[in-house]
C-alpha cells in the first residue's frame, strides 16, 4: 500500500473515528485499555448477539495511532461473527509482530504493516486489539 494512502487513511480515521462515543447500555461488554508508552487510555464497549458483533464503541484520550487503529478495527469487525473476529485479530497481531499473516483478511488494517519500524508505536497500534480480545475472553467465560 502506498505510504501517502496509508497516511491519509490513518489521519482520516483519527480525525473522524467510527463509533467514538460510549452509550449507556448494560447489555454491552465493557473494558478499559491503556498504553504504558503513550497517553492512550480508552474505554471500549461491545455488543454481541447470536455469535455476531453488533456494535463496538470507544472513547477516551489517545494518540493518532490508537484512535485510528480503533476506528479501522471497529469498522472491520461490526457485523462479523466471533470466529472471523478472532482470525482477524490474530492476523493483525501477527502483522504487528512481523510474523506470517493473511494480508487479504486485514483490509485497511494493512496501514500498520510497517509499524514495527517504530517500536514506540507498537503498543499504540495494539490498544484496540487488546481491548477487544479481553471482551471476547469475557464472552468465552460466560458461555
Q: TL;DR of this structure?
A:
By secondary structure, the chain is of the alpha+beta class. It has helices at 3-15, 64-77, 82-96, 103-106, 119-142, and strands at residues 29-34, 41-49, 52-61. It is globular and about 40 Å long.
Structure description:
There is one protein chain. The chain has 143 residues and is of the alpha+beta class. It has a single domain (3-142), classed as Sufe protein. Chain: A, CATH 3.90.1010. The chain is built from five helices and three strands. The protein has helices spanning 3-15, 64-77, 82-96, 103-106, 119-142, and strands at 29-34, 41-49, 52-61. The chain has a three-stranded antiparallel β-sheet, covered by helices on one side. A hairpin with a 2-residue loop joins strand 2 (41-49) and strand 3. The chain is globular and about 40 Å long.
Element order: H for helix, E for strand? HEEEHHHH
Inertia-based shape: globular
CATH class: Alpha Beta
- What's the overall average pLDDT, rounded? 95
Helix content: 40-55%
Helix and strand composition category: alpha+beta
Characterize the biggest β-sheet: 3 strands, antiparallel
Distance between the termini: 40 Å
Number of domains: 1
Q: Would you identify the regions where 5 or more consecutive residues have pLDDT less than 50?
A: none
- CATH architecture designation: Alpha-Beta Complex
Radius of gyration: 14 Å
Tally of strands = 3
Our estimate of the beta-strand percent is 15-25%
Count every helix, treating DSSP H or I runs of 4 or more residues as helices. Answer: 5
CATH topology: Sufe protein. Chain: A
What order do the strands of the largest sheet run in, or round the barrel if closed? Answer: 1-2-3
Amino acid at each position: 500500500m502506498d505510504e501517502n494512502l496509508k497516511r491519509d487513511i490513518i489521519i482520516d480515521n483519527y480525525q473522524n473515528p467510527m463509533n467514538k462515543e460510549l452509550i449507556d447500555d448494560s447489555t454491552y461488554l465493557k473494558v478499559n485499555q491503556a498504553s504504558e508508552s503513550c497517553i492512550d487510555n480508552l474505554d471500549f464497549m461491545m455488543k454481541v448477539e447470536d455469535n455476531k458483533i453488533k456494535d463496538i464503541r470507544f472513547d477516551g484520550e489517545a494518540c493518532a495511532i490508537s484512535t485510528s487503529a480503533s476506528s479501522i478495527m471497529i469498522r472491520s469487525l461490526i457485523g462479523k461473527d466471533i470466529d472471523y473476529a478472532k482470525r482477524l485479530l490474530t492476523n493483525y497481531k501477527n502483522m504487528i509482530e512481523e510474523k506470517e499473516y493473511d494480508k487479504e483478511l486485514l483490509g485497511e488494517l494493512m496501514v500498520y504493516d510497517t509499524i514495527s519500524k517504530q517500536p514506540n508505536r507498537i503498543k499504540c497500534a495494539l490498544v484496540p486489539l487488546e481491548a477487544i480480545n479481553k471482551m471476547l475472553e469475557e464472552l468465552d467465560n460466560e458461555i
